[in-house]
Amino acid sequence: SKEKSGTGYHFFESEMNNRSLESIKLENALYKALDRNELDIYYQPQIDSRTNSIIGVEALLRWIHPTEGMISPADFIPIAEDTGLIVPIGEWVLENACKQLKKWHEEGNHALSVSVNLSSRQFEENDLVEVVQRILIDVNLAPEFLHLELTENQIIKNKDLTVEMMEQLKEIGVKIAIDDFGTGYSSLGYLKNFPIDALKIDKSFIQDIREDDDSNSAITNTIITLAQNLKLNVIAEGVETKEQLDFLLSKDCYLMQGYYFSVPLKAEALKEKYLI
Ligand code: C2E
Ligand code: CA
Ligand code: CA
Ligand code: CA
């Protein structure tokens, strides 16, 4: 407290000021980032490893700051969420990812889907369903090609509201996946209350799949079995090695995403490598 000896307090105070100055600077820059065209969407392929063919892409936001360079979403999404900026930014991602997908459909890649990450802040906006519907109509995209990803913890934050929103989204025809599955604090029993289509196994479990360690393989195995029993699709994320791929295939989990196949790419690069 202020009564305590001078030096300690002053040191603490200047540390605090530095930190908030940094985040205020970032926050101000983020406000302008949309208008200044500094945001971009990268796309990571989702692969059916039985046929080694692309089935979809995940849209991943990138901020190319004019002086700081590429800033990771792990660093700016939390600021965007705290300030509410995630709402207009998230809408921008939805609209542009749908436009990009429509273009790829028109070029002949008719079966491709796009997965878009949603923040719980967006779920708290009561016009989310109208926004999604308007974008689908504007872009003229069939709703089943848009897959929305929500993390387990976002879902349990406000169960009733989330179920309600999900049901409305299902009604307009979009698909819903639970992201980072297995890392949350919920029980498995809650799953049946949500109208979901797919589980994404968190990359922390996939990356721990090793021949000499059964415990993480056991978790992955359990999630796959759960998804199969509930008739949900299951996607493994963060697949980096042939060993992980082989393990997953042996458990009939064939939808995968990860550096083993590709890092997230700019739209043009993704088209060049994977599309017609
Ligand atoms: P996420 O949704 O779990 O996305 C997967 C992250 O894992 C991405 O990081 C991706 O680049 C990375 N990744 C993919 N394959 C591998 C792999 O084989 N190994 C490893 N180590 N990592 C892999 P990224 O792009 O940095 O995004 C981080 C997080 O930021 C995302 O995690 C998501 O939660 C959030 N995010 C990204 N874009 C958006 C967005 O448009 N809206 C919202 N609300 N969140 C976003
Ligand atoms: Ca995701
Ligand atoms: Ca994830
Ligand atoms: Ca994550």
In brief, what are we looking at here?
The chain is of the alpha/beta class. Helix content is 49%, strand content 20%.
Provide the gyration radius in Å.
21 Å
Calculate the terminal CA-CA distance, rounded to whole Å: 64 Å
* Portion in helices: 40-55%
Could you report the average pLDDT, rounded to the nearest whole number?
A: 89
Strand content: 15-25%
Helical region count?
11
Q: What is the β-strand count?
A: 9
Spatially, the strands of the biggest sheet line up as: 1-2-4-5-6-7-8-9
User: What small molecules are bound in this structure?
Assistant: ligand C2E, calcium ion
Which series of helices and strands comes N to C? HEEEHHEHHEHHEEHHEHEH
Domain EAL: 23-276
Protein name: EAL domain-containing protein
Organism: Psychrobacillus faecigallinarum
